[in-house]
Fold this protein.
Amino acid sequence: MTRTGAGSTGAAYALGTPSHDAFFTEVGKGTPCGELLRRYWHPVGTLADAGATPRQVRVLGEDLILFRDLQGRPGLVHPRCCHRGASLYYGRVEAEGIRCCYHGWLFDVQGNCLHQMAEPGGGARRGSFRQPWYPVAERYGLVFAYLGPPSKMPVLPRYNLLDDLDEGEFLEVNDRSLGAGGGVIVPCNWFQHFENVVDPMHAPILHGSISGVQFVPQMGILPEVKFEYSELGVIANSYRKLDNGLTLHRRTEAALPTLRVVPNPRVRNFCRTESIGWVLPIDDTHFRIYVVGRVREAGEIEAYRTRFNGKLWADMSEAEHRDFPGDWEAMVSQGPITLHSEEHLASSDRGVAMLRRFVTQQVKRVQDGLDPLGTCFDEAGALVRLTGGQYLIDADGTPVTPAAEAA
Amino acid sequence: MTRTGAGSTGAAYALGTPSHDAFFTEVGKGTPCGELLRRYWHPVGTLADAGATPRQVRVLGEDLILFRDLQGRPGLVHPRCCHRGASLYYGRVEAEGIRCCYHGWLFDVQGNCLHQMAEPGGGARRGSFRQPWYPVAERYGLVFAYLGPPSKMPVLPRYNLLDDLDEGEFLEVNDRSLGAGGGVIVPCNWFQHFENVVDPMHAPILHGSISGVQFVPQMGILPEVKFEYSELGVIANSYRKLDNGLTLHRRTEAALPTLRVVPNPRVRNFCRTESIGWVLPIDDTHFRIYVVGRVREAGEIEAYRTRFNGKLWADMSEAEHRDFPGDWEAMVSQGPITLHSEEHLASSDRGVAMLRRFVTQQVKRVQDGLDPLGTCFDEAGALVRLTGGQYLIDADGTPVTPAAEAA
Amino acid sequence: MTRTGAGSTGAAYALGTPSHDAFFTEVGKGTPCGELLRRYWHPVGTLADAGATPRQVRVLGEDLILFRDLQGRPGLVHPRCCHRGASLYYGRVEAEGIRCCYHGWLFDVQGNCLHQMAEPGGGARRGSFRQPWYPVAERYGLVFAYLGPPSKMPVLPRYNLLDDLDEGEFLEVNDRSLGAGGGVIVPCNWFQHFENVVDPMHAPILHGSISGVQFVPQMGILPEVKFEYSELGVIANSYRKLDNGLTLHRRTEAALPTLRVVPNPRVRNFCRTESIGWVLPIDDTHFRIYVVGRVREAGEIEAYRTRFNGKLWADMSEAEHRDFPGDWEAMVSQGPITLHSEEHLASSDRGVAMLRRFVTQQVKRVQDGLDPLGTCFDEAGALVRLTGGQYLIDADGTPVTPAAEAA
């Protein structure tokens, strides 16, 4: 008989009732973090998602209907018709808006009731009804929505990484949760991914030592890491000493409200970060990621996607997922919302701790009646400058060209 | 960039916590509406459903077992054997009743314990045990049950529309939720359908303008509607002006407890209503419909069923359901129980408002210790006279024969 | 029309809100029965289940990871890594323990943190972290775990029925819930099975009269039953008068903590009980059974399994399960946790009543700060003597040899 332990301490019997921290996890209306997130624009679909066929979307725990009237205006409305509650998912999109299937009330993209088919004369009092709606705006190939208090609506930001294109570059949209290491709808809280962004030490361990090379061999080197606050969040600088004496410097940022600004982990180019990912909290326990990036060929972003032994995640068996875990497994297995009360952070988690503190501070700003960082109310100030990228540097920290590395 | 709104009012952000009105929706024992419904008989199956094989049924939120002993008596009992709780679904039906599989207790259709196989002598104290049961009665090809307080049990009603047969007519039963526009078990509260019965304006819109001709072309004409109270509920009279100068008059009734008395929407005959539908609340969030009608050929009732572009609902894809919604989509998409706090009724909803008021009044009668309308305690008064039908009338309101229309 | 009842009493309308008794059903940490069960060792898998691939197990409502380090030591740990919560199900098993996939923390089988891959030098403070764990021990081909307070850990018991082998016998393990009459994971509370063990009257009824011969013809004879308390539970002695004038005496025991000690119901041998079954409460509403028995041929235990009309349960259709119910149907149909408030015990349920009383007394002992019966704290006293078996006896109660019966 082999026996383990007897009278030792540390038994799981002593565990108390665990809990999570709502200040940087919960996304519903009226929750601390939910009210912070509602001060920003979030992507709710691609341009094509807003079309003549109503589309069900779920954003920050709210079910909504995305459509585009036949004049080309995108609209985002509450699904229950304000008349008797039939869903506008079954509505008919017309030139002026969307018409409920049940009694033919027609609403424009701002929820104004334009016509009531069942009422005499199209509804003498139609002007007194309004379908609940949210403002939307299009940029970078995505439709963004603002779900917050109307008086606090900021302008839709621009980003230097997407506005300034180099010769031959164009923008590409990817809505398949690139960076989450698995499927499109990720069944856990969004912050479990947001933390992963400023946690560069997991890369050589999870994506290297444990599961083999999931990106490229260089990523398997344990880096030295320096964290810093940025204007909108936290930056992790990781430095990997390469065999040729040079150093690979990666500068990765998690930025308000939900931006993942991560250089391509497959390390093809040494340049400023190629793409921005918006981590969209679908609800407290699901998220997805919309990515927009600068590319030179169509499909370039999808090609970033992690492979495990050459296989895509979707093609792996459950046993393979168990034996070769990636970000998806590490994030999702923390549970629908991880239990912060049971955690024990260490020195390599400094980025995570900084990010939690930063977001919590913004939550408190909103609770104190202030505007959170990164909200801007005039178009002139709407450009956000992000400073991420990956570079080869020499012993003095001076960037060198890739050619030097190849030598 | 196309942008919708900024600083406008009506944003969904302002929505409060929604709620439903329990007075005409919830069906459980002890709820206001549940206690009203428990003062009436409800169908729990066809005659064949009560047989030698125990059958699980769910009625007003209660799980029950329907069977028929080998002498032909139908029985409806609580599923948990009163001994140790094994389900009588696994019971053996015998001449005298149903016997539990676990320890062989035998109960008759009134729950009396007749034999205890595991007890000496078949159980000296068996007379002190009783399986919870409900009274049942058969009529019109259906088995009805009374789930209310025993002292308040009314007689089982008769209906003129089903008792008085014309030459060549016979009664046909249909248990497939005809009138609900979809499958047999409808996943929403029963009152969402009950309201649909006294809402004639939805017919030309939902079943005409939005989804194309789902019944017949005449139904696509917007009617003039006059509502009135009947003895047992609300009647909607709808008048459609036909091309030949005549008027199609349809008289549709929602009557206590859950009757839908609707002339055939496929408009084959001009006569008193051909059938009665009982909307059976399975529980708060599911219902089904049992129909009994006067027919001249077997299968006539099933032939009423709505078609969408010639297709039955069950044969349509999800995309077709979205593009060609019918009653099912309009009812079910309101949610498991619609949220009355978010509604905005208009003049064409007068029938709905009347029906809610009528049912609420009956709920209050029961709460005040009175008998609700439509409960009768002697056989002599058990005949209910329903006055619905559809007719062609001329400009003076005088009925004309169909031949006149054909002319 | 056939009508059942009117004004009779006993209607299900009178049923109140039902409840279960937590004292012998609920298994969670902190519940009365859960704390009793936590004073004993429980099987959590076979020897092979503890291997180099982490295995998810659920025991007494707790999710845990079972593994075996590459030195051969079994381990049972909390699934959430104490660092940042990724599941150790995705961990890598090494010589010294299990390493989390996310940041490479390595824990031994007692939860000690041996290495932190992401920390400088493998973690200067690693000694201050501990993964929650439980003691495990191997015996009889099973891995047992102790989930209770460390200071109260008893020695792992031995059982005479498994320690003393007759010539030619060896031990065989079966982990497929033999005795539950169906699948491996049984979706109801464990006590519904525990009661079944001391309920010999159900055998001739459920397994004979109702569903035909499920074991052997003799089991179909209604026995005379005498119950008695044992040191660790309740014993049911059942006596069946055979055609040859002899009596079949079966002595069946339900013993603390969850032991089913039942002679082979297929009645092949007349001897002390061949096997012990541990009813493992997975959580409040699921259980499984691990059996270890003395056999002479491999596969003998699985051959005990009930057949219905020659078919195994897994091969039967739903209709066959309905028509030929067995233990599974009788237990599971009582619901996830049976509702004791609705029961009516009779004289043949005396064993059930005794077992409930016995377990409740032990619960109270624990609540009073005492050790429950059957916990022993020195190896010398760890042998439990069980006295069950089945025998042929003559009119004087004297055992006779099987040859006498054959004569």
User: Anything to note?
Assistant: Chain A touches chain B through 58 residues (CB under 8 Å). The helical segments of chain A are 32-37, 160-163, 190-197, 202-210, 318-323, 327-332, 350-367, 402-406. Residues 350-367 of chain A form the longest helix (18 residues).
